[in-house]
Inverse folding.
């Protein structure tokens, strides 16, 4: 029997305000890490719905996506889980947020931070993945694709038909 391989699909919100980026400090299996508001795509959800939900859960900000910054493939080998290897397919979206809402942050999220690119680069050893800085750098280079390139067929979102 052959092994089925599939990457974990994740989304990330790239949010800049006055040359600072909204980041989260979070617990991970490898300690406390810095990441964009990000997380996994859930069943029945579009990529855009996922990034809006994750940004709200992790930062208490309502995120409005405006562009796709990029798609990224990476692999993480966890030192705390006996070398377990997970491949991630990340979709990073640029957008804006308003003022934070009065709500608790998602479990495992310690706090939000607004950081400059240089501050982020200075703590690269604490990033959740190498994609954290790569996404910011791609954003700063002006890399954007229209949201129309991100399509969710109705068969992939919402309730599945009963058989």
């Amino acid at each position: 029997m052959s092994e089925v391989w599939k990457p974990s699909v994740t989304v990330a919100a790239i949010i800049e305000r006055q040359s600072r980026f909204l980041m989260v400090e979070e617990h991970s299996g490898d300690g406390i890490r810095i990441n964009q508001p990000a997380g996994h795509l859930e069943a029945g959800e579009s990529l855009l719905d996922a990034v809006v939900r994750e940004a709200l859960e992790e930062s208490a900000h309502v995120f409005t996506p405006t562009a796709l910054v990029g798609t990224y493939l990476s692999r993480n080998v966890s030192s705390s889980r006996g070398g377990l290897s997970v491949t991630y397919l990340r979709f990073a979206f640029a957008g804006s947020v308003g003022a934070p809402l009065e709500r608790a942050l998602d479990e495992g999220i310690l706090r939000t931070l607004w950081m400059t690119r240089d501050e982020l680069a200075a703590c690269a050893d604490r990033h959740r993945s190498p994609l954290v800085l790569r996404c910011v750098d791609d954003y700063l280079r002006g890399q954007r694709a229209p949201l129309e390139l991100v399509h969710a067929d109705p068969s992939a979102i919402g309730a599945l038909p009963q058989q």
Q: What stands out?
A: The helical segments are 47-59, 117-122, 131-140. Residues 96 and 129 are 23 Å apart (CA to CA). The mean pLDDT is 92. The longest strand covers residues 63-78.
